[in-house]
Specification:
Blueprint (H helix, E strand, L loop, with lengths): L4 E3 L3 H11 L5 H19 L5 E7 L4 E7 L2 E8 L2 H11 L4 E2 L1 E6 L6 E7 L7 E6 L2 E2 L3 H12 L4 E5 L2 E2 L1 H10 L5 E3 L1 E2 L2 E2 L5 E2 L5 H6 L3
Helix pairs in contact: 1-2, 2-3
The structure holds 1-O-pyrophosphono-5-O-phosphono-alpha-D-ribofuranose and uracil.
Amino acid sequence: MRKNVHLIEHPLIQHKLTLMREKSTSTKEFRELVKEVSALMVYEISRNMKLKEIDIETPIGAAKGKVLRDEIAIIPILRAGITMAEGIIDLIPTAKVGHIGLYRDPKTLKPVEYYCKLPNHIDEYKIFIVDPMLATGGSAVKAIEVIKDRGAKNISFVCLISAPEGLETLSSTFPDVPIYTIAIDDHLNSHGYIVPGLGDAGDRLFGTK
Ligand code: PRP
Ligand code: URA
């Protein structure tokens, strides 16, 4: 495993991942699980985030407090990343949210960009790009290219399930981008789906199949 790949194996996360994989899990439950797991992942990832000291007033008097030093931006890859972003902003409500719209052409499996709206001064943010599935890696690579082109510097990629093929492509293309995942599955099938995976994340989140 390359140095920039981080596998998060917290027992609570692994428990919830199993519920997500199960095909009988309803859309409602699936959505809740994605939100919960995304928040738990960011709790783990943020362990080493930098703090800065500020002056505050408690009801009793003056005090020093510590708050996150960096401005955070969450950038979901549409559409399945949206629910991950929702889980994360429940935990970090001051985070700004950008959106990048990509879909995978079912024949070529190549990403097609259709939307991009980022916070102003994106170069000043600590950025988490979120997407539940890292399959071929094409969408993640494209998203990072687009966001870097617009000036972003401090980027991490957060996904739920990854395929070895996608991890290799992403980690070798951008060795400077930390990748956080909760599972490295076996392989991709001939349609580019992760095996065993959890199926089509967007369809399971939005009930479109
Ligand atoms: C899925 C997933 C990723 C992409 C991963 O989205 O959410 O964005 O596929 O595949 P890749 O690593 O091979 O690029 P999809 O293209 O199905 O779009 P959707 O979220 O609109 O359903
Ligand atoms: N996109 C998904 O939603 N699932 C996969 O297994 C691969 C790509």
